[in-house]
């Protein structure tokens, strides 16, 4: 494919041309101009979540998983105990990370089509005072399900524990208000709802939690306390920063502000989702989730029943028409996923639906 495809994935995703253009120059990583860009980046990600004055922004080179690993390694100490609330693959990944880091961890699990229940969380915490930290995935990208953040955060804070929030696929679009919601650390990355390019993860962390974590991480690179101290001392990244990715992310954050902030972005994504769900239903595809728990981020569809449609030829035929969809990540049902996020609007989804109809007719005729 020679032209840029439309990415209907959970990231990397379709970016604005201005964001890609921001990468067309070089930066000296220790030059004042880049230090100022880094300061703008740290400021802007705090603003997105209303975290000025309460949280510190700590960007880290790498993908989203890197920042989750760094946060668990740094903030969950050797004497602490982590409870992960799991209803999908990203929750399971946090359990695996904590085990690798040698941290005490356990999981409370729900089926993939059910949201985490705040009452059950409060009960589990009351039953086990040795749990110090709770980890939650805001939008479980495995299915696209939304977990009720405000109620879970209140339950965790009510029991006096710290909450680590994987907001990878929600940050920048779904509401996260750190001035009203008690969260110790929010984790996200450059290439999902912020519509930047891949290469940066970041944490917004309460400074008290960082101070308490000095020297706790068993990893030199995945040490959020040391990374934070680096930024605080001279405004610079500890190790080589992905300079073009920083420039693209700052441009993407300016575009987010110009669009009207996370609330406006959420409305655009919700419109994308509504267009997609209505059109796919007409074509015979049932969404995996009930609408009440579906976040406007990514939708999971079942393969139509009684019709021999395999994922691979379906994928290839759509790719030929310029649309890249995403495989399912479920253990049980045969599914695929279509993202609603990225620099896309309703018209892109209307064109996608025409392509899906065309592809189905061609595959059924074959
Ligand atoms: C994408 C994602 C991750 C992992 O990010 P990578 O960039 O693939 O490492 C973690 N959690 C959630 C909820 C995600 O959507």
UniProtKB/TrEMBL annotation:
Gene3D superfamilies xrefs: Aspartate Aminotransferase, domain 1 (3.90.1150.10), Type I PLP-dependent aspartate aminotransferase-like (Major domain) (3.40.640.10)
Cofactor(s) essential for the protein: pyridoxal 5'-phosphate
Binding of substrate, residues: 337
Keywords: Aminotransferase, Pyridoxal phosphate, Pyruvate, Transferase
Record's keyword annotation contains Transferase: yes
GO biological process, one term: organic phosphonate catabolic process
Domain Aminotransferase class V, chain residue ranges per copy: 33-303
Keyword Transferase: yes
Subunit-level organization: Homodimer.
PANTHER family, alphabetized: 2-AMINOETHYLPHOSPHONATE--PYRUVATE TRANSAMINASE
NCBIfam families noted in UniProt: PhnW-AepZ, PRK13479.1, transamin_PhnW
Record protein name field: 2-aminoethylphosphonate--pyruvate transaminase
Organism annotation: Muricoccus pecuniae
